[in-house]
Amino acid sequence: xxxxxxxxxxxxxxxxxxxxxxxxxxxxxxxxxxxxxxxxxxxxxxxxxxxxxxxxxxxxxxxxxxxxxxxxxxxxxxxxxxxxxxxxxxxxxxxxxxxxxxxxxxxxxxxxxxxxxxxxxxxxxxxxxxxxxxxxxxxxxxxxxxxxxxxxxxxxxxxxxxxxxxxxxxxxxxxxxxxxxxxxxxxxxxxxxxxxxxxxxxxxxxxxxxxxxxxxxxxxxxxxxxxxxxxxxxxxxxxxxxxxxxxxxxxxxxxxxxxxxxxxxxxxxxxxxxxxxxxxxxxxxxxxxxxxxxxxxxxxxxxxxxxxxxxxxxxxxxxxxxxxxxxxxxxxxxxxxxxxxxxxxxxxxxxxxxxxxxxxxxxxxxxxxxxxxxxxxxxxxxxxxxxxxxxxxxxxxxxxxxx
Length: 403
Ligand code: PLP
Prior knowledge:
alpha/beta; 7-stranded mixed beta sheet; 3-stranded antiparallel beta sheet; 12 helices; 13% strand; globular; binds pyridoxal-5'-phosphate
């Protein structure tokens, strides 16, 4: 049996979601068709919308189904930008935290490159938490010139929970729309979906199917569509709705919301056991992100750097030993890049490249943690030896003038 410690990347489908989807998978009808089968599919979509809205405490008309977190983030960021610019051309600024997921970071950078957006990056402290004062100062000094602000609810790499209540209150007071990426937070910690202007969610992070998500867009949220076509979702998102997918999303979401506190407590205890056991084995490992309860850190998240190792080498060694984990960093053309999140937290780039994320979820047990703790000592030893070889060959190459 493999130990799966990568629930933040994707968590297994919940039984309730599978059961809800199975009878729908065999139906071919398009929810926009007018015949009986089409109307039955439409009914399923609208029931799923009502269920998602109820789980989130918003109105059904505020739930737009999408193909997942990435699409929801793109629709919110670009859609709000175009709509706000069209209302007032002076609105050239976009405020964004430095630790956003690439699904937010890249559309923000794209707006900077292609649309002339002036991006203002919101700094974070050593635990990855934004400084709300910087946001308040920006809002006070430039409220008329800001198109939108975007701050994630919880970070996918280090699990830091942001002070969204304060962020939302400050943006609302200044009349600036706020987008929140709640992809990692939803299902792990309490989320007030009604606080921001738009909120992105993804089904496969909470036990629903892959390739489905939603954007919660509050009434009156100014959004220009990204995709044009049938206008299925309030004329804002075109494309045939994935009927089994949204049924699965609704079932998974209502399940995870029902036992949120109990699951957070169970995962928090399991994670604390992982952290303590890991530090016993590797006392020089550095835990990144905040220490504390679910109000400051996602309960299933642990993130460490292992000095002297390359994170990707350690990942492959653990993989060979039957343990699935993740590095936080993206690989650009085969070259491991230090994570922008860790760099924003002031972590040294070499140390940042030695990091691994362990993330727990609904199927996680103590046996998974034990499997990691058993596989880690030999993996660490080999990764350290490999790290030393790499460092000494780099030094030898440098001495010979080879870059
Ligand atoms: N936002 C965050 C914080 C994420 O962790 C992810 C996925 O890892 C996404 C957005 C993208 O979601 P999806 O995989 O549904 O496109």
